[in-house]
Every structure is written in structure tokens, then in C-alpha cells.
Write a structure and sequence with these properties.
The protein is an alpha+beta fold. The strands form three sheets. It has a seven-stranded mixed barrel with strand order 1-2-8-11-10-9-7. Strands 3-4 form a two-stranded antiparallel ribbon. A two-stranded antiparallel sheet has the order 5-6.
């Protein structure tokens, strides 16, 4: 299990149980360092004071809030600590709401919420009640010097916790809307048929980060002194007639696989069998 990011008590009504939070996901990416182009040496970023025309050490830096153009109010670290919420030891459920009403746009970071040994029974009770009622819990927690509203929902094996964006953090874009009057019934029927032809179970394990894999392969290729070959991109045909495009898409989905198309997959399968043998 990953390291604990928060430990305390979850309360709802007169029920209290000890729990702890673990990070449920983290992004993976390839990191690069900035080098000097002429000699490939690692560079250092210096902090420069434009008013005094000199480089300054980090020890001389303070935080400033720009309340109007080029005017700042200085806020000390100690002052921030005085008003920041302490990392609370109690997470209180404020209410339960229908899970179907929680728009995913509000969900920020994800955590596993696991019970301590003494809290397993009330934890299991809450987990099962959330599953059967199809409700989600809305709770308040102070963590990492910030107050969060969080969503508690049942996962496959336990309760998941998601920190939630506040209403004023969700961007309201007036241009983001859809004119459904543009849709014709025939087009909609074909679009639904195309969706059905592509339908399947959600299996996240079959999706891979091909961009990261390509970067790793590029790095290994350069380390081995080989030439980097550009990956070909599939052409994107312009949509002229949406009905014709939908019909052709459906024809491609329904077309049986030819012998030429099936042969590479057969060879790959045979190759895997030989290698595993």
C-alpha cells in the first residue's frame, strides 16, 4: 500500500470510525532537463532583480499579492500559517446526495479511504449502504493546509474519496453549448448505430500511453546511435457530407476482415506462441 496522506476519523451522525487516505492515481510522464546547447551542460536558473540589476538569493524572497498593476501587498509565511486551516483529524460527512447528480467535472484528485482495524465494521456498513442506496457522501476535510469538500463513493473493493472543485473554480464558458436543433433524425439513427458498433466493456488496462512509450523508444534509439524514424500519422479526411461519412463509417465497421488484414495478426499470434514456448 502507498504511503498515508491523511489519517483521522470519519464521522456521520453519531458514528465515528478511524480511517486513512492513500493516493489512488498519479500521472506518469517523461521528464527532461534543460541543457546548454553548445556543450550539453546542465543549466541553473538564477533569480534576477530587475530594479537592482543583480541576482538575488532565495533567502531574500517574500510573497507578494498584486492588488493592482505593479502594486503588491507583502504576505509573510507566518501570516499564511495563521489563517490556513490546520490539518484536521476529523472528516465530517455533511450530507448524502444521489450519486447520479455528481457531475464528474467537479472531481479533482482521487484517494483510497481504508479503515483502521477498529473501524472495519462501521466502514463495511457505510460501504454497503452507499452501494445499495446509490448515494454519495459529501464531507469536509482539512488537508495539506487547505480545506476541501470531498465526495465519498463506493468503488469495487472499498470507499473512494475525491477532492472536489468549488463552484467558483469551474469555468463557465458561454460559448460551450450545443444546438441540438441541427440534428436530423436520420443522422441521429446512423450515429447511434455507429456508437453501437463500437460499443464494448470499459477495460482501462487495454489503453496505453503511446506517446510516453514512443518517447522512451526515441531515447533508447538515440542512446544506441540509431536514426530516429518519424511515426506516420493516419490521414484525417474532411467531412463534406455527414450522412455519407456516417454510412461509410458503418460500412467499414461491418466489413469482414480480409485475408491480407488477418495475416499479420495470425503471424503475430504465432510468433508470441513460439516465443512463449
Amino acid at each position: 500500500m502507498a504511503s498515508t496522506v491523511w489519517k483521522g476519523h470519519l464521522t456521520f451522525g453519531l458514528v465515528s470510525l478511524p480511517v486513512r487516505l492513500y493516493s489512488a492515481a498519479r500521472a506518469q510522464t517523461i521528464s527532461f532537463n534543460l541543457l546548454h546547447k553548445t556543450d550539453n551542460s546542465r543549466i541553473k536558473q538564477m533569480i534576477y532583480c530587475q530594479a537592482e540589476d543583480k541576482i538575488v538569493p532565495r533567502s531574500e524572497l517574500v510573497k507578494g499579492y498584486e492588488y493592482e498593476k505593479d502594486h503588491y501587498v507583502v504576505v509573510e509565511d507566518e501570516e499564511i500559517r495563521q489563517v490556513a486551516p490546520r490539518t484536521s483529524k476529523v472528516m465530517e460527512i455533511l450530507e448524502f446526495v444521489p450519486a447520479s447528480e455528481v457531475d464528474p467535472i467537479y472531481l479533482e484528485s482521487s484517494y483510497y479511504m481504508a479503515p483502521e482495524d477498529s473501524g472495519e465494521k462501521p466502514y463495511a456498513l457505510l460501504f454497503e449502504a452507499l452501494k445499495q442506496s446509490q448515494y454519495a457522501g459529501v464531507a469536509k476535510i482539512a488537508m495539506h493546509n487547505r480545506e476541501h469538500i470531498v465526495i465519498l463513493r463506493p468503488g469495487d473493493k472499498g470507499i473512494l474519496l475525491h477532492t472536489m472543485y468549488y463552484e467558483d473554480e469551474i469555468r463557465k464558458v458561454e460559448e460551450f453549448r450545443t444546438d441540438t436543433d441541427l440534428v436530423q433524425e436520420k443522422e441521429l439513427a446512423l450515429a447511434r448505430m455507429l456508437i453501437e458498433s463500437l460499443a464494448g466493456k470499459f477495460e482501462p488496462e487495454k489503453y496505453k500511453d503511446t506517446y510516453r512509450a514512443n518517447l522512451e523508444e526515441l531515447i533508447q534509439t538515440k542512446l544506441a546511435g540509431r536514426k530516429v524514424v518519424e511515426i506516420s500519422q493516419p490521414p484525417v479526411a474532411p467531412v463534406i457530407d455527414i450522412m455519407e461519412a456516417l454510412k461509410k463509417s458503418l460500412e467499414v465497421r461491418k466489413r469482414p476482415v480480409s485475408a491480407e488484414e488477418a495475416e499479420p495478426e495470425t503471424k503475430r499470434t504465432a510468433g508470441r506462441r513460439r516465443s512463449s514456448a
